[in-house]
Amino acid sequence: MGVxxxxxxxxxxxxxxxxxxxxxxxxxxxxxxxxxxxKTKERxxxxxxxxxxxxxxxxxxxxxxxxxxKYRNAVRKSCIIFRKIKELQxxxxxxxxxxxxxxxxxxxxxLKDGNPLTLHYVMFIPTLMSQGTLEQQALWISRAWSLDxxxxxxxxxxxHGTFIRGLETTATYDPSREEFVLNSPTLTSYxxxxxxxxxxxxxxxxxxxxxxxxxxYGIHPxxxxxxxxxTHMPMPGIVIGEIGTKMGMNATNNGYLGFENVRIPRDxxxxxxxxxxxxxxxxxSPNSKLTYGTMVFVRVVIVQDCATFLSKAVTIxxxxxxxxxxxxxxxxxxxxxxxxYRTQQYKLFPHLATCFAMKFAAGWIWDMYNNVSSEIEEGxxxxxxxxxxxxxxxxxxxxxxxxxxxxxxxxxxxxxGYMTSSNLPSTYGLVTAACTYEGENTVLLxxxxxxxxxxxxxxxxxxxxxxxxxxxxxxxxxxxxxxxNTIDRYVRAFKEVAAGKIVLCAQNIERRSQTMSPxxxxxxxxxELTQCSEAHCRAFLVERFAGTVAEGNFSVPLKQTMEHLCExxxxxxxxxxxxDFLMFTSxxxxxxxxxxxxxxxxxxxxxxxxxxLVDGFDLHDMVLGSALGAWDGQVYERLFEEAxxxxxxxxxxxxxxxxxxxxxxxxANL
Length: 670
What we know:
Layout (H helix, E strand, L loop, with lengths): L4 H5 L3 H9 L4 H9 L2 H15 L15 H24 L6 H6 L3 H5 L7 H14 L2 H12 L5 E4 L15 E5 L4 E5 L7 E2 L10 E10 L2 E11 L12 E5 L12 E5 L2 E4 L9 E2 L5 E2 L9 H31 L18 H36 L6 H29 L11 H9 L8 H20 L26 H26 L5 H7 L1 H26 L4 H21 L1 H7 L4 H18 L3 H7 L4 H4 L10 H9 L11 H12 L4
Parallel strand pairs: 1-5, 2-5
Antiparallel strand pairs: 2-3, 3-9, 4-8, 5-6, 7-8, 10-11
Helix pairs in contact: 3-4, 3-21, 8-9, 8-10, 10-11, 10-12, 10-13, 10-21, 11-12, 11-17, 11-18, 11-20, 12-13, 12-14, 12-17, 14-15, 14-17, 15-16, 15-17, 15-18, 15-19, 17-18, 18-19, 18-20
């Protein structure tokens, strides 16, 4: 598991005993999650390559740095990282290193509070690839890939985010000079939030309202130079800076951007889909949704990152819970490990199960994204709406679940979880940001709901259904199936709840539309619509979890543990959403009592496997970055070591504060 036998002997005794209780080999789980033993070796070799580099390690913890120094340190490290990636690629390796180093795992170990270059690879280059013509790709991608230029993606504005059609930045075509003129007509039209925009990027893909020959044609992407390539000074007409500190991601260099009559060549409009001819004639895109490809990609990546952040938090909290002893359970006996308390297991294990639910669903939607992208290249757009709907609700539900889960896991660690050195506050700050960037979650759920309403009407008229909404066939005519306490029945029950909520929403919209406008009817039903989207996503998560476990080639002990985790995930959410299941399925009150007892039994069954399961995530100590969650379990020693790193502990007396303020107060005879 990445530690020598000598280091194993130094492991906390309680944590060591937990590992002996586990009935399966955690390495088997590691290989399954990585995609095979060879993939595990590649990952660990890459971790060694980066994490052993002294230049990428901090002498002073990042959280003690000033805001400006934190940014400068992140830029320094980012430059080292990408030089090392180029070295790897020159040796024939490191093809997927960018995603490893920009996500929440390896990248989070090196750049703990965000990476100012992330959007260059996650959004700038993918947008050039998906929206640029072959000629534009040849020009821009080669420069971006070789780091001749650094880019970002400027879409969100101070006054508009998720409602993209409401963006105010304008790009007006001037046929006399074959140029676009970009302007920010209002304060609210200033671009706001793009990572790396503040002081890092010198180019951006800017999303603006296209105007040609006096006609408005909606949003389109443009490549705009922001800063001089030699001096890095802002180009004429560019108003640019950083937006300030946030709850997390403070090294990401999120920025603002305004335009004052900024001229760019006509060819700087990305024209793979829509085009503007030299005389200003507008050629419409075959499908307006093609513009959203980059956002779909990023939402899929966010789901994967949410699973990683939650895995880190649950590893920290589970290992700490095995080491921490608290209270006298039996008077006179040794204080028990807090992991033995059923309430503690309830805080830990459902979120442990959620990690797997997210990972398995993220793998499926990643494959779907790649398949649909290939089909789009061939001109087949049939599955794009389904991909868009699933990426919206998955991003919304998984980011909300991960954010909630990390906070519960932080609370499960008591006061020590509040320490920055636990890395739980920082992890929460990073993961909760995903609830609002790349689409605010409520709005994304409503976008999925629009797809579900269309799917319901298609199902009602007997049309062919795509795989994720096939359960709507025959609704609402299907009778409730008899209840059974099996995982297959649980999966069907989640689909029944989703279908029931979708049907109810459709009926309520239709009823309300008889006395009000369609827009008002939608707004009146919007709370229910977000709930039906969540139910749709939850059914998908449960189905993918169950399907992956059933199809997985596991040893008998690991298979049994994975089945328990899958069942716990289903039972946990059935009990949390009990009213829905009583309303839309054949579940009865007597079945509820069984589920409650079953949940307690599952917590108990998972208990001896818990440390082995988080060990199976195989998260390097530097990736965890936590005094509470390290492999050796030496929690108190590590907490004390981290405390010594505080600048205030450099001297026994902080002379400035004592002699300037405290001593005069103490001697004032007040």
